[in-house]
Design brief:
- The complex is a heterodimer.
- By secondary structure, chain A is mainly alpha-helical.
- Helix content of chain A is 48%, strand content 2%.
- In chain A, strands 1-2 form a two-stranded antiparallel sheet.
- In chain A, helix 3 (39-51) packs across helix 10 and helix 6 packs across helix 10.
- Chain B has helices at 3-22, 29-38, 60-73, 97-105, 109-123, 142-154, 181-193; strands spanning 27-28, 42-44, 56-58, 78-81, 87-90, 128-129, 161-165, 171-175.
- The chains are: A mainly alpha, B alpha+beta.
- At the A-B interface, loops of A face helix 7 of B.
Chain lengths: 267, 198
């Protein structure tokens, strides 16, 4: 029973997926699994992250940042230093329209989550880009993972290089999903967003202060920007052959190409 | 006072402040002076005295002024004017300015609560649960919290302080100067849900 996941358990308890999917308590996500720190914590960034997994996302890179306890202006200062703009972080429930910096933060969150899982680090605790210390300007260390890795293994690797490893893991995960679903159109068939994300129990419009309701057109733009920063095809949401090759996964791309599961393939 | 005397006095005076900060206490200049006198580092008396190792005999006001200068120049120490009007000292490495302000305001629960509520509404922004003030470092008795809230409700200086209850009945306090009521209610409800969404 446990192997069937949350959906299997709920079905066994006579709670069909259709009922669960309309839950405004914000538990359901898609394809039989629940959400994990989505728009209730982090607006578009949380939504993007929840579209990417085959189970509840278990990603805390983004939620650890927005929940780090620092004043919003300090969070925005750090965000500008790390992801290029203070506008990539909003106050919770005070969301602003999508921008490319939010997509970069979503990408960073996913890559670090994959790294943490692979390095034996706890993604519930990290990354460590914020500090409680005023003397540090409240900045943490965005390179801590690569420093840990270099110290533990003696194999010196900088942040960019290690992040590339994380991106490779995440892209391989994406390739496995594409192969096992036999489906190129990840954007429509996999990266789905539940209806409740676009609703508000009180009828408040998107971007109302005190509402976590997202806007459908804005989320479509969010996915466009996310695929763009990943170097993926925007129409299908699938990695291109170039994206696979850039990460040392050319053979993976070739094997998917043989199944017409790489963008640009002819059926 | 020789340079050597001053160095010893500085070290001893700083140690008093560092020790207090380590123990979570603020220190006034008077308390530092008393500690130095009782520790035999300084002798208070009439007029200038002679040097005997690090010991000095200084007139009260002169000693106090010298000490204030020494503490103000020390790189590890910080000071501010407390609610009482006295200068209070702390070591930010051991006791932050935020924490120091809270300790200073503990003598005036009304000011303590109002300023904490306003700062949280303005900076984070977030409402704070009323139980916050029962916990360290505030440690106010419930009856004192209740009295402060009733007083605030009747005092024109505190008309910005108000509350919002959550569905589970927890009362959150906020300042309408910095948070709209609807948004405060949303944030309070969210704060209540965080433990169920780790």
């Amino acid at each position: 029973m446990l192997s069937q996941g949350t959906s299997g358990l709920f079905t066994h308890w006579s709670i069909p997926e259709e009922t669960w999917s309309q839950d405004h308590g914000a538990l359901y996500w898609k394809m039989g699994h629940p959400k994990h720190h989505a728009n209730e914590d982090d607006g578009q960034c949380g939504v993007i992250i929840n579209t990417q997994y085959n189970r509840d996302a278990q990603c805390h890179s983004h939620s650890n940042f927005v929940r780090n306890g620092l004043p919003l202006e300090v969070q925005k200062k750090l965000a500008a230093e790390i992801w290029g703009s203070p506008d990539c972080v909003d106050g919770v429930g005070d969301y602003t329209p999508m921008n490319v910096h939010k997509a970069r933060r979503a990408r960073w969150s996913l890559v670090r989550k994959e790294l943490h899982d692979s390095l034996g680090l706890c993604n519930w605790m990290g990354p460590w880009v914020a500090s409680p210390l005023k003397s540090r300007g409240y900045s943490g260390d965005d390179s801590l993972e690569s420093k840990f890795y270099s110290l533990a293994t003696g194999h010196k690797m900088d942040r960019e290089e290690l992040d590339r490893m994380g991106e490779r893991i995440f892209t391989l995960h994406r390739a496995l999903t594409i192969r096992d679903m036999g489906q190129l159109s990840m954007r429509t068939q996999h990266d789905q967003v539940p209806r409740w994300v676009f609703e508000d129990p009180s009828g408040a419009p998107p971007f109302s202060k005190g509402s976590i309701r997202m806007d459908q057109a804005d989320m479509a733009k969010a996915m466009d920007l996310f695929y763009q920063v990943m170097g993926w095809d925007k129409t299908s949401g699938a990695p291109t052959q170039e994206a696979y090759s850039r990460l040392g996964l050319a053979e993976v791309g070739k094997s998917l190409k043989a199944k017409t599961l790489v963008p640009g393939d002819k059926a | 006072m020789t340079g050597e005397d001053k160095a010893r006095l500085t070290e001893a005076a700083a140690e008093v402040v560092l020790q207090a900060s380590q123990e979570g206490r603020l220190t006034t200049g008077e308390e530092v002076l008393q500690a130095l006198v009782s520790g035999g580092i300084l002798r208070q008396g009439e007029g200038q005295g002679d040097s005997d190792n690090a010991r000095r005999t200084l007139a009260g006001e002169e000693a106090f002024a010298a000490l204030a200068g020494i503490l103000a120049e020390h790189p590890r120490l910080a000071s501010f004017e407390g609610l009482s009007g006295q200068t209070v000292y702390h070591c930010p490495d051991l006791l932050s300015r935020t924490y120091a302000r809270i300790l200073d305001r503990k003598g005036s629960p009304l000011v303590l609560m109002a300023e904490e509520i306003r700062a949280n509404s303005r900076d984070y922004p977030r409402p704070v649960p009323v139980e916050l003030f029962e916990a360290p470092p505030f440690e106010l008795p419930p009856e004192e919290i209740g009295y402060a809230l009733r007083t605030m409700a009747a005092d024109p200086q505190y008309q910005d302080i108000t509350f919002t209850p959550t569905a589970s009945g927890v009362v959150y306090l906020f300042s309408v100067l910095y948070l709209e009521r609807g948004y405060a209610a949303f944030l309070a409800q969210r704060a209540e849900s965080l433990a169920m969404n780790p």
